[in-house]
Design goal:
single chain; mainly alpha
């Protein structure tokens, strides 16, 4: 929109207040307008709460990609609890949007909520598997690998080494196979099978 363009010009000139005013004007004309909302999102800082107020104004009608960008801004600001709240809202509204489930699972694991993490990561994988392997986007491939590693970590924390190894064996992204192999070897060593672990790395 015109207001977003004006706002970008003001921001480029380091006039943050004028840029925010332009974003506000654009959203007052149309709360569903994404470009003024993106401008506000780009200005989100702990010492500039007015920008987040505009982001929240747009959020009810936002596309999931915008909502995810807001979540990542919250995570960058070390506001994990707020991010989880937004991800739960987002996953309820857009249940087929992959990355919300991955982030929910990773944050739950980080907080030691193993059952919740396992549930959300498995849901992510079930949605990811809808993509044909040959046509799977690179970000989904990376996400699958992250989910497999995380599920292996959950199993390892539960001392279920067989399940941990099974999750690691499912990693098929060429860039990550070696790392998975090293983790599998470490699992064997943790069970007192050091020689077997060394053989796995050398093979």
């Amino acid at each position: 929109s015109a207001w977003a363009v004006i706002g970008r010009m003001r921001l480029a000139a380091a006039d943050r207040a004028a840029a925010l005013s332009a974003a506000k004007a654009g959203l007052e004309l149309d709360e569903k307008a994404q470009h003024p909302a993106l401008l506000a999102l780009s200005m989100m800082q702990p010492n500039f709460p007015e920008a987040e107020t505009l982001v929240l104004k747009h959020l009810p009608s936002a596309r999931p990609e915008f909502h995810l960008a807001y979540v990542k801004a919250l995570l960058n600001g070390k506001r994990d609890s707020d991010a989880v709240t937004q991800l739960k809202t987002m996953s309820a509204k857009h249940p087929d949007f992959l990355e919300s489930w991955l982030l929910l699972g990773l944050l739950a694991l980080q907080n030691g909520e193993l059952d919740r993490a396992e549930r959300d990561l498995k849901l992510y994988l079930s949605l990811a598997e809808k993509h044909e392997s040959a046509q799977m986007p690179a970000d989904v491939r990376r996400g699958r690998t992250q989910a497999f590693h995380s599920l292996a970590q959950i199993a390892q924390q539960r001392k279920d080494f067989a399940s941990a190894d099974a999750w690691l064996q499912r990693i098929d992204n060429p860039d990550d196979v070696l790392r998975a192999q090293i983790r599998r070897a470490a699992l064997l060593a943790q069970q007192g099978q050091l020689d077997e672990g060394l053989k796995m790395i050398r093979s």
